[in-house]
Write a structure and sequence with these properties.
alpha/beta; FAD/NAD(P)-binding domain; D-Amino Acid Oxidase, Chain A, domain 2
Length: 367
């Protein structure tokens, strides 16, 4: 099937859409303003193993570490969550993007770098076919076609240091609403001897770079880093909610990934939701071209599958972002006493809290 389907943005979501379109017999053209695709990649790469299995990507050459749990810190209190088996991988985002690129091209996509698409060019592409906007949190596609503003943004800053983590396979999460309200700070062992230190803060309440500078001066973090300088660092934006519109039938425009705001407000992770949205978007494009469906079906399909989970992530984020850090510390003690740490270790799901609760209730009903 030949039709002009244009994807703006050669990140993970855009390339997954291109690959899936190729599998459906539709050759897409992917445009990206960067000359070297995937460079620089500043976003973190912690992805659930269960979520990765849904994307259809060969990520085997991208894994740099396995994670089995997390220590959650607030006001000197700690919840230790452990699984009996790895629940997440740390992936090299550059390698992941390269893998997605190679699979998209192998399925017939043309990927063109050093090409910024905006204004009249967007109108031309939409007039000749379908445009999929996969161009990040500050999406030119969404803005040009009036698809609503992002409800909010989290500003992040992260750096990598050549130093061993406190505990292999364990992510350290630090909550402090006075210092970084809206998300948290973290230490993640990206590999055996490469530690990622990062921080996220709601854009209304702080500056990520300044908050990061304060965080690495904390006595424990300072001790871990031992005066080392980062081998890489940078910041990026994360949307904190869905845009009001992610699909138009006329002109034919769809949004996927960060451009649509398909991101977990609890962690800022968007590859699993965005990648699955890209697969759904590709199917909607095929149905539209076949005359068996509308492009806007994509929006309702996505919300049926992930709407509840995104709402639950949003509610959790609002809960921990609206209380004092001391209260959070005391809450950790209560949750530990109730055995919530063990519950999360056994039933926890990084992506879909609705499935986590379903598994819990089904397990207990069967006892």
């Amino acid at each position: 099937m030949r039709s002009e389907v244009s994807i703006i943005g050669a990140g993970t979501a855009g390339l997954i859409a291109a690959k899936r379109l190729g599998e459906l017999g539709i050759e897409a053209t992917v445009y990206d303003q960067k000359r070297r695709l995937g460079i620089p990649v500043r976003a973190s790469g912690i992805l659930s193993i269960s979520g990765l299995s849904t994307l259809g990507i060969d990520y085997s050459g991208c894994v740099t570490n396995s994670l089995v749990g997390a220590n959650v810190h607030a006001a000197g209190h700690v919840m230790r969550i452990r699984s009996k088996r790895p629940v997440a991988y740390v992936l090299d985002r550059k390698r992941l993007n390269d893998a997605c690129h190679d699979e998209a091209v192998a399925n017939g996509a043309a990927v063109i770098g050093s090409r910024r698409i905006y204004g009249a060019e967007l109108d031309r592409l939409a007039g000749n076919g379908v445009v999929i906007g996969a161009d990040g949190a500050v999406s030119a596609v969404a803005s040009h076609f009036g698809m609503g503003a992002s409800p909010g943004m989290v500003l992040t800053w992260k750096a990598e240091y050549e130093v061993e983590a406190l505990e292999d396979g364990i992510v350290e999460l630090f909550f402090d609403n006075a210092a970084y309200r809206g998300l948290f700070a973290w230490l993640c062992p990206n590999s055996r001897d490469l530690l990622e230190v990062g921080i996220g803060v709601d854009s209304r309440y702080g500056n990520a770079r300044k908050s990061f500078s304060k965080f690495i001066e904390h006595s424990e973090v300072k001790r871990i880093l031992g005066g080392r300088r980062p081998v890489s660092e940078g910041g990026f934006l994360i949307p904190t909610g869905m845009r009001s519109l992610i699909a138009r039938d006329s002109p034919g425009v769809l949004l996927v990934g960060d451009a649509a705001g398909q991101v977990k407000p609890t962690t800022g992770g968007g590859i699993i939701f965005g990648g699955n949205a890209a697969i759904m978007a590709a199917q909607s494009v095929k149905n539209h071209l076949d005359g068996s469906g509308k492009l806007s079906d994509y929006s309702s399909q996505f919300m049926r599958r992930y709407g509840l989970d995104l709402a639950m992530h949003s509610a959790i984020n609002k809960a921990y972002s609206s209380v004092g850090t001391g209260f959070m510390g005391r809450a950790i003690d209560v949750l530990n006493a109730l055995g919530v740490d063990g519950f999360l270790g056994e039933y926890g799901d990084m992506d879909r809290p609705s499935l986590m609760l379903k598994r819990f209730f089904l397990r207990n009903l069967s006892v």
